[in-house]
Amino acid sequence: MTIDVDKTKQKVKELKKNKRLPKIAMFGGSLFLFPHPVKELSDFLKSYDMHINYDAAHVAGL
Fold it and tell me: From which residue to which does the signal peptide run (predicted)?
């Protein structure tokens, strides 16, 4: 599963407009074929005062 950066930004803007903006964005998974776009979304999410959490426990073998 890949994360569409543009659609994610649209969704965040929509949630903000509807006063339903989450406080955290969570990345992670047991297996993924493509890197998560943490770098691409980091500044954007921070501009909305959202925290970013990356759970690498499964892929790091923990």
Answer: none
